[in-house]
Design goal:
The protein is mainly alpha-helical. It has 50 helices and 2 strands.
């Protein structure tokens, strides 16, 4: 793409139209930009447009966002097998790198932030090795800006450096990472301290002069905040020598920001927020040192603990100050669990913490009530799902837990008394003091301890049964489901959390109350009621059996399902994931009558029709499809007469997904179709055969997210319609799909699934003309991909081929590709890798196939193949006699380093999964099959095999084989 007036005009118009309120105009513009993005120098052209000051700022900002996203997708491959043709050419990359720093520093704040992120994308892949010019350019510009006290440029550079250095917080410590860190420290640590101290002096002189204005001092505080965030990144992995040598300078300034007030800023809400952000950054830094460099930091600890304590006493309850309160309390929590916990042992310290820090921060605030009413999803995310570690309520309780690590009795006694005071206050005036009861319930729930690896919780604060009966049950049995909704939510949360402690008898009596709450007006309340029911149905007794079964919910099933579906009609809960998850769980437990099945499939398909128009909640959508799958499975497996009614209800929605190309739902649709195909009895209805035609089209397989579901559907057709497969060239199309799948590292496993099903489902006469082509394709891939996973898949396929069509057909067709190649495959791949096979069915299959090879195949019974025979037997015994963990060396999974936004991905439907089928149902025990086959063979050739066994089996395997022969009474003679 050449840079000329026409290009400028074209791009400007496109970006202008992407801002249009008209959907069609936006789509056309986005499509034009997407097409243009494949051309060389597109990224460079967009960057030059961003630099054109004659263009409207909104257009340039849209271009900056596009430029950033373009780099995210095309600067480096997202995975090893991704086509490199779509990547930005190296020449264009160098030009972008030469321009971007200067452009970023001269840009307006909004565009600067986008270019800073774009620069960080480049830095993630290229810095420092492939972009050695970046640091010298940044530091040179930083020195110039510092000399001129140009804090707009200083903060732009610091913001970019902060983004680049963030990788040191999140990546695993490796030699390469530490080398990069050393490079950054060598070049940036000293300039960072220089800026930090110079800015600190400017703040001091400006604040003390009396004539300071907020406008002049704001950039200075922003600069200090960025310096603190960079400090955090550079110190995260370990304490660098430079920072240890200069700890006093850093800590002196840090303490100053926690103890000094800045009236010039703190007389406005925005100014308070800026100062709080700096103080919160300081608290994060001292918390990091407390966690990782306790010994070096201990000299400063008392001063900082005192400063943070005083600071917390002055932080008001307004939500804008939450970040500071949370980071400050987090620091005290870290101190409480350290060897310096004696700071909390003084007379009256713990009661003071409870009164002045914990209780005020645990009490409900107006902001909490507003969140409860206005944004129930966020409220639940924080309150129920444990992502509230950044909230005052949660972190205050974490502080108590931390102190209790060393002072458990004091904390328990103190909080128990506090809970009783709160409950007494509520009892005195329930209408006015309902928040006291909420606070009491919250303390019990939040301070409960969870057993490692389980769902069971316990508490020393109250007797659970008594507390449940006297405090929780009255809320659950309240006839007004809409009164005091936050109290109701707290009671439902308590029931959910302590569900294992509540006896079945008591819980079943409360089921009708839980069902009533499903239609409460409060979104949180009916969500918590659904979650409580769903979690109760998962409770297991000590023996592992479910505590609640179908007969326990049968008396309420009709009204339960009715209320659940009615809850989905309540405003803002039309796509409530907790309700849909509960529907899924109930359908998995309940006895489903004709009436229930009819009503549920109608309600589910109606909801499916709605979400197809605009898929926006992936979690809700998953539970919706899972609910359909589990209903189809449980109802149709029980009574096949349901199938036509289900098809009639589901087909219109599935047809919509396929014809409208609803990308997010295609994998689900294919899995549901596979489920329906498998439930049908041959011959398959014509409506399905139309889908079979679509399935065989190469276009259907272009999206990688569809592949596992398409394979699942293809397997269903292969099993249910094998005769139709041999018509109209369909088998050639299927094998073409196999070849395409097996040639890609990301889909070869799916290719083997197709191939295995072809072998299982079709007669040998049908596949015989294609077998040599199959082997040729597999061996060609084997040349370039000798990974354990690929070889395991190949061994399983060859074993399946052998047990289905005989060892002679296997050996002869393989050797037809290249004379005597079977022996090479045997020695190089089969024998050394047999021990890596895992899974009960796969282990049995490969062991039986290998046994049949050494006991039936002339090529292995030949006198010249003694070594092959002995080594194969050694591998079989290893496979069958040693536990998986002793014989399997799994290749490490490569981490997914792809940076991507929302994409349609494959998510397996548990209830629509393919049943694992055993191709050897007549053979129960592969160990017995091995020794029985060897005994029978040795009886034909007495004395021939014992010397071979002695020579080629290691001592442990010889002993294991002898023990198997004794156990099954099958001697080798």
């Amino acid at each position: 793409m050449e840079w000329n007036p026409e290009t400028l005009q074209f791009l400007s118009q496109c970006f202008l139209h992407t801002l249009s309120p008209e959907r069609e105009a936006r789509r056309r513009a986005e499509a034009s930009l997407l097409e243009a993005s494949d051309r060389p120098n597109y990224g460079l052209a967009v960057l030059r447009l961003v630099a054109e000051l004659s263009i409207d700022e909104q257009i340039r900002q849209a271009a900056a966002v596009n430029f950033k996203n373009h780099l995210k997708g095309r600067w480096a491959p997202a995975s090893s097998d991704e086509a490199h043709s779509s990547l930005i050419p190296d020449g264009e990359k160098e030009q972008i790198k030469a321009l971007i720093v200067t452009l970023m520093l001269s840009a307006s704040p909004r565009i600067q932030s986008q270019l800073s992120e774009a620069l960080a994308v480049i830095g993630k892949h290229d810095f420092p090795k492939a972009w050695p010019a970046l640091f010298p350019e940044l530091i040179s510009n930083l020195q110039k800006a510092l000399e001129a006290s140009d804090y707009t440029s200083i903060n732009g550079i610091l913001g970019t450096a902060n983004t680049i250095f963030k990788k040191f917080r999140y990546q695993y410590k490796t030699n390469d990472l530490l080398l990069d860190l050393k490079y950054c420290l060598d070049n940036f640590a000293a300039p960072l301290l220089e800026i930090f101290l110079k800015t600190a002096a400017l703040i001091d002189s400006t604040a003390n002069s009396g004539g300071a204005s907020a406008i002049t001092i704001r950039p200075l505080f922003e600069s200090q905040r960025l310096c603190c965030r960079i400090f955090y990144s550079l110190n995260f992995q370990e304490l660098p020598e430079f920072f240890e040598d200069h700890m006093k300078e850093w800590m002196t300034e840090f303490r100053k920001y926690l103890t000094i007030n800045y009236p010039v800023l703190e007389n406005t809400a925005d100014g308070v927020a800026l100062v709080d952000e700096l103080r919160a950054a300081v608290c994060e830094n001292i918390n990091l040192y407390m966690e990782k460099n306790e010994e070096e930091f201990q000299g400063y600890l008392n001063d900082f603990a005192s400063a943070v304590w005083s600071l917390l006493g002055n932080v008001s309850q307004v939500s804008s100050r939450d970040q500071l309160a949370v980071t400050a309390i987090k620091f005290l929590t870290t101190v409480s669990t350290s060897v310096h916990h004696a700071l909390f042992a003084g007379e009256g310290v713990i009661p003071q913490i409870c009164q002045s820090i914990v209780i005020p921060n645990v009490r409900l605030r107006d902001e909490d009530e507003e969140l409860f009413e206005m944004n129930y999803v966020e409220f639940i995310r924080r309150d129920m799902e444990g992502s509230d570690l950044d909230t005052r309520r949660r972190i205050a309780c974490e502080l108590l837990k931390g102190i209790a690590t060393n002072y458990k009795k004091q904390v328990t006694d103190l909080v128990s008394v506090q809970i009783q005071h709160l409950l007494s206050s509520f009892a005195a005036n329930p209408v006015v003091n309902w928040k006291d009861k909420d606070c009491a319930i919250y303390l019990v729930v939040s301070l409960a301890t969870k057993k490692a690896g389980g769902t069971s919780v316990s508490t020393d604060l109250v007797d659970v049964q008594t507390f449940f009966g006297s405090v929780i049950v009255p809320e659950l049995q309240s006839q007004d489901v809409n009164g005091f909704p936050m109290l109701k939510a707290g009671a439902l949360k308590f029931f959910t959390m302590f569900r294992n402690h509540i006896s079945k008898h008591v819980a079943v009596q409360l089921f009708p109350d839980l069902i009533r709450f499903l239609v409460a007006e409060s979104n949180v309340v009916h969500s918590y009621a659904a979650s409580c029911i769903e979690k109760l149905l998962l409770v297991k007794e000590e023996g592992g059996q479910a505590r609640y079964i179908s007969v326990d919910i049968s008396p309420f099933l009709g009204v339960l399902m009715q209320n659940l579906f009615n809850a989905l009609k309540i405003p803002d809960s039309e796509e409530n994931q907790y309700i849909m998850k509960c529907i899924m769980r109930v359908l998995g437990v309940a006895d489903i009558s004709h009436e229930i099945a009819r009503d549920c499939i109608a309600a589910l398909t109606s909801k499916l029709g709605e979400v197809c128009k605009n898929p926006k909640n992936p979690v809700f959508n998953h539970y919706l499809f899972e609910s359909v799958a589990i209903l189809v499975k449980r109802a149709c497996e029980r009574d096949v007469s349901f199938i036509p009614a289900f098809e009639e209800s589901l087909f219109p929605s599935l047809q919509t997904i396929l014809t409208d190309d609803v990308t997010e739902f295609l994998p689900y649709a294919f899995q549901l179709l596979a489920q329906l195909v498998e439930l049908n009895r041959p011959p398959i209805p014509p409506s399905y055969m139309q889908i079979f035609g679509l399935l065989l089209s190469p276009d259907s397989w272009k999206r990688s997210s569809n592949v596992p579901a398409l394979v699942r559907l293809l397997q269903a057709f292969l099993q249910k319609a094998p005769n139709e497969l041999n018509q109209e060239g369909r088998l050639s199309q299927v094998l073409g799909i196999f070849k395409k799948l097996v040639s890609s590292p990301s889909s070869y496993e799916q290719g083997f699934f197709v191939l295995n099903t072809v072998i299982e489902s079709l007669e040998y006469s049908v596949i015989a003309p294609y077998v040599c082509h199959i082997w040729a394709a597999l061996f060609a891939e084997l040349q370039s991909r000798r990974t354990i996973k690929f070889i395991k898949s190949l061994l399983i396929f060859m074993s399946l081929f052998l047990v289905k069509h005989g060892s002679a057909n296997l050996v002869d067709t393989v050797n037809a590709v290249q004379p005597n190649i079977f022996q090479a495959i045997l020695m190089q791949f089969w024998i050394p890798n047999l021990k890596h096979i895992t899974g009960a069915i796969e282990t049995k299959l490969t062991a039986v196939a290998s046994t049949r090879l050494i006991c039936e195949s002339p090529s292995l019974l030949d006198a010249a193949a003694v070594e092959h025979w002995g080594k194969m037997l050694d591998s079989i015994v290893t496979l069958l006699s040693r536990p998986e963990q002793d014989r399997v060396e799994e290749e490490p999974e490569m981490p997914d380093i792809a940076e991507s936004g929302y994409t349609a991905t494959f998510v397996r439907l548990f209830s629509a999964g393919k049943k694992e089928e055993d191709p050897l149902t007549d053979i129960k025990d592969p160990k017995e099959f091995l020794v029985a086959s060897l005994a029978k063979l040795s009886a034909l050739y007495p004395g021939r095999f014992i010397p071979i066994i002695s020579q080629y089996l290691d001592q442990a395997n010889q002993a294991a084989l002898l023990e198997l022969c004794r156990f099954y009474n099958c001697p080798i003679v």
